[in-house]
Amino acid sequence: MDEFWVFGYGSLMWNPGFSYVEKAEALIFGYRRSLCVHSWVHRGSEASPGLVLGLDHGGSCRGMAFSIAAAERDEVLSYLRERELVTKVYLEKTLPIRLADGRRVTAVAYIVDRSHQQYAGALDAVEAAHIVDSAIGQSGPNDAYLFNTLAHLREMKIRDQWLEQVAGEIERLRKAS
What's the rounded Cα separation, in Å, for the pair 52 and 30? Predict the structure, then answer.
């Protein structure tokens, strides 16, 4: 198999960490970007977990796809597994995606494992905002993660209305206090 694609929906979109032959905006169906993973280290603690992104079932998600040279396939997969599968909260899947130019390809994507103890479930924007607003981990405040993610998405001209709602709820919480 010569063609190898990777789908990114979070930091992988702007910080892939590997070389690629082609980069293209892409759409995946049946999954959505969501703050659905409890962070116990980087953006929270076990006592006060934060939330980070996962690709969860339902809806669709605009992200970025990367074509990888066949000779680098194994190296990139090894890197991705080290990066994404540390706590096994994500499952590696090969899924169909549609590139912005209409091509349909399959790509490796990392979706959340709903049976994993770090799965936060489907939270509404208010619940997510309360968690994100108060959590702090080794990599800093959880809200910085959210606002940084939104800034990168805006730079890429990708709107995520749910993440924007969570950010809006955080701003409302702060005005109310």
Answer: 19
Among the listed residues 52, 33, 28, 20, the one whose alpha carbon sits nearest the alpha carbon of residue 161: 33
Instruction: Calculate mean pLDDT across residues 34-57.
Output: 94
pTM for this entry: 0.90
- Quote the CA–CA distance of 69 and 106 in Å, as a whole number: 15
Pick the closest to residue 89 from 60, 57, 53 (CA basis).
53
* pLDDT value for 159: 92
Contacts of 15 (CB under 8 A, 6+ apart): none
Per the structure block, which two tokens stand in for 173? 């919480």
Domains and CATH numbers, the chain: 4-176 (3.10.490.10)
In a 3-state reduction of DSSP, which class is residue 18?
Answer: coil
